[in-house]
Automatic annotation (TrEMBL):
Protein name in the entry: RING-type domain-containing protein
SUPFAM superfamilies per the UniProt record, alphabetical: RING/U-box
Source species of the chain: Salix udensis
Domain RING-type: 78-121
Keyword Membrane assigned: yes
Superkingdom of the organism of origin: Eukaryota
TM helices/strands, residue ranges: 12-34
UniProt keyword annotations, A-Z: Membrane, Metal-binding, Transmembrane, Transmembrane helix, Zinc, Zinc-finger
PROSITE patterns for this protein: ZF_RING_2
Signal sequence region: none
Length: 165
């Protein structure tokens, strides 16, 4: 009797796993035939989130123009690109007093998971805010639904799905 119960339990689990995989394939198929405007919607959302992120960066570390007056008090070159600052260039000066070209620092803050000064690693934005930005950005870039489904399947079935293939 116990072995019969184990057999039915195993068959039930395999049926659920197979159904979930078929459902996942159907979702991927539907997403592949969606019109192009659905893709641009995620691009717009990505731009909005990135804009909001850099508005916070701007609020905490406003852009300034490099002048000869700053030359004597600050470093003369950007530590990211190693180019000298030129008169009138846009730059950001962080709380730690390090200065960078605006675009160099913005690229640094967007690419790295921690929004810190490239030189001394002083926090530029709160860690939680940066983590949320990267999670949202990754979610949008990856379409969200497939990753969510794959994650849920892996949590539910662990390595058992590998044995099916």
């Amino acid at each position: 009797m116990a072995s019969l119960f184990q057999l039915f339990s195993y068959l039930y689990t395999m049926a659920i796993a197979l159904f979930d995989l078929l459902l996942l394939k159907a979702v991927l198929l539907i997403r592949s035939v969606l019109p192009g405007n659905m893709i641009t919607h995620s691009d717009k959302l990505f731009r909005i989130i990135t804009t909001q992120y850099f508005n916070l960066v701007e609020e905490k570390n406003p852009t300034i123009r490099y002048t000869e007056n700053l030359r004597h008090r600050e470093s003369r070159e950007c530590a990211v690109c190693l180019s000298e600052f030129l008169e009138g260039e846009r730059m950001r000066k962080l709380r730690c007093k390090h200065a960078f070209h605006k675009n160099c620092l913005d690229r640094w803050l967007e690419e790295y998971l921690a929004a810190t000064c490239p030189l001394c690693r002083t926090e530029v934005l709160p860690e939680e805010l940066v983590a949320n930005y990267h999670l949202l950005r990754d979610h949008i870039e990856n379409g969200g639904s497939y990753d969510d489904a794959a994650f849920l399947l892996s949590v539910l079935y662990g390595d058992g799905l590998r044995r099916l293939f």
